[in-house]
């Protein structure tokens, strides 16, 4: 039963992923008009979704731990890990291409903020729903 609740709670993150993917695939001319590479945004969206899914799974494991400090450490740790993954992805992208598209990188960091906000909001709502003695 709890796994179903945790899976259903992840649904808004999945919907945001799909919406951004459809936006980046369907409107490359609009993004090109803003001097933004849609392929970089699409790749950044995919990387952020998978990192968010992994950190969400780790958060769910930490919610089952009776020590409340484990959850707080996991939130801060996942923020740091996601930021480092973004940094490594940007450095990898800069190493592969000669002309770095700054607008796409800024767009990826905006996606980072969106995914992090959703994840933390969902997880704090889940902590309020858990029994106090669990």
What does this structure look like?
The protein is mostly helical and 134 residues long. It is 84% helix and 0% strand. The chain is built from six helices and no strands. It has helices spanning 2-9, 11-26, 28-33, 38-63, 68-96, 102-129. Helix 5 runs antiparallel to helix 6 (102-129). The radius of gyration is 17 Å and the shape is elongated.
The residue-averaged pLDDT reads: 84
Structure classification: mainly alpha
Oligomeric organization of the protein chains: single chain
Mind summarizing the main beta sheet?
Answer: none
The portion of residues assigned to helices is: over 70%
Coarse morphology: elongated
Give the strand content. under 5%
Keyword list:
134 residues, mainly alpha, 6 helices, 84% helix
Structure summarized in a few sentences:
This protein has 134 residues and is mostly helical. Helix content is 84%, strand content 0%.
Secondary structure layout plus pairing:
Elements: H1 2-9, H2 11-26, H3 28-33, H4 38-63, H5 68-96, H6 102-129
Helix pairs in contact: 2-4, 4-5, 4-6, 5-6
């Amino acid at each position: 039963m709890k796994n179903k609740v945790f899976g259903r709670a992840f649904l808004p993150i999945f919907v945001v992923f799909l919406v951004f993917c459809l936006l980046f695939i369907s409107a490359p001319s609009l993004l090109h008009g803003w001097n933004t590479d849609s392929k970089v945004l699409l790749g950044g969206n995919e990387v952020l979704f998978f990192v968010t899914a992994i950190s969400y799974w780790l958060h769910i494991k930490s919610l089952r731990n009776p020590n409340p400090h484990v959850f707080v450490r996991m939130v801060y740790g996942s923020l740091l890990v996601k930021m480092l993954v973004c940094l490594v992805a940007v450095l990898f992208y800069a190493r592969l291409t000669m002309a770095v598209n700054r607008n796409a990188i800024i767009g990826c960091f905006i996606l980072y903020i969106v995914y992090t906000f959703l994840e933390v909001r969902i997880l704090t709502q889940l902590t309020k729903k858990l029994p106090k003695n669990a």
